[in-house]
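note to self: dont lose this again. the chain is below, predicted strucutre after it. 509 aa total, dont forget to put it in the shared folder this time
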Amino acid sequence: MKKTTNETRVITKVIAASSLGTMIEWYDFYIFGMLAKTISTEFFPEGNATAALLSTLAIFAAGFIVRPFGALVFGRLGDILGRKSTFLLTLVLMGGSTFLIGLVPGYKTIGIAAPLLVLLLRLIQGLALGGEYGGAATYVAEHAPLGRRGFFTSWIQTTATLGLFLALGVIMLVKYSMDDAAFNAEWGGWRYPFWFSILLVGVSIYIRMKMQESPLFSKLKSEGKTATNPLKESFSHKANFKMVLLALFGAVMGQGVIWYTGQFYAQSFLETKVLLNFEQSRTIMLWAILFATPFFIFWGWLSDKIGRKWIMLAGMVIAILTYRPIFGYFLKNADVTKWEQTIAHEAPETVVKSAQANGDETITYRQEIKLASGGGYVKERTDVVNVATGAVATGQTMYKEKVLPDNLYWKYVGLVFLLIFYVTMVYGPIAAFLVELFPVRIRYTSMSLPYHIGNGVFGGLVPFIGVLLQTNFTADPLVGLWYPIGVAALCFIIGAFYLNNGIDENVND
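---
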């Protein structure tokens, strides 16, 4: 009994220390994506908002693309030097680069050097995250008692979503404390979440310094059986390399696109296509994340009972079948002409005139409207006046910065919850699934690479490819969903036919 109590205390400390550090790394990684629209105006020249946003999303995606290289570099170190020291180093690199992004002057101050510096720091972030996750998941799994790896590693799985939750929460607190002009200024409030990172990292480093090395790795090291060349052992041995490929194409790439569709593409879609205002698009995400997060633990626990494979594949196939109906609902019900039009307050119309480069004049008419139902929107129209002839080209009336009526708001929360619920199904069991595929001596390297290719490349490109498809195929507002649907469908087919439901946990320990 005493031994069991002591083991529980140890694993609780391991989970708490590992999860806190990993959550902070995800926070650091994701605040960039959360602030992509603002960042695009600060680090790129004015004149083409769409091009600036695409460029910012490309830098965001670059951090994902280099994650596999981080997996190779830090995975090798983790299998040679140990889990603890390696993911301590990744934490320092991530926190330092995040803090420095907050110090880079804007394009107006240092020109092209601004986006180049941000890109460099973003690449360092991606490398660091490439080494963090595999170390944390391996570390927790190697402390976990047999038969409970799914449950214990699922706590690590919550950290990505909790890091996103923390990023959203900090951004919202800063945004609410100042007006838009102060938040979006070159040295405005949008930088505060980056600076706040250094405090979080300091706390996590202090906690991680007190951690002990993984018992399985320590035993391996004491016996002189650690890998001398983890990269060669992981990828030149046919049987192991086959497992790497199956992990990637049969599980992780599908999990990656489901993750980023449910939590990043959804938020981007609500803001850029549905045209919800900044605060409401993010509070919807916050509520949905809060309600869905416990299911990471549930699915991890259940995977110890019935196996990992079919839980993950079920999440994929449900997402494939329901993505377009859910996102279609978002668009259809955000049509303000279908809302109850009992106006509670109608602000005076503002008129802003500005000159174009060719000498013509633009006149923007803008009016804020609040409805009795609790919703509201901004009605905006921009006309172009030909100065030479006096002819007026009347622009299309746009309904922007929408605030959903109360009855619709919670329906949107419920649907975003479903999107993240799918994420919990595919992501909750996957750490235990990956750990059990590979032997201890090369586990850090072998599991990190497929994870970060699946998430960093296939998943991380979801927002960028989604916006790119929307830009080029404007007839279908849901065209961006075909990328995650296609990748998840391919992964489901490969996983269903070629993956085992689980491996005896003693095989690779």
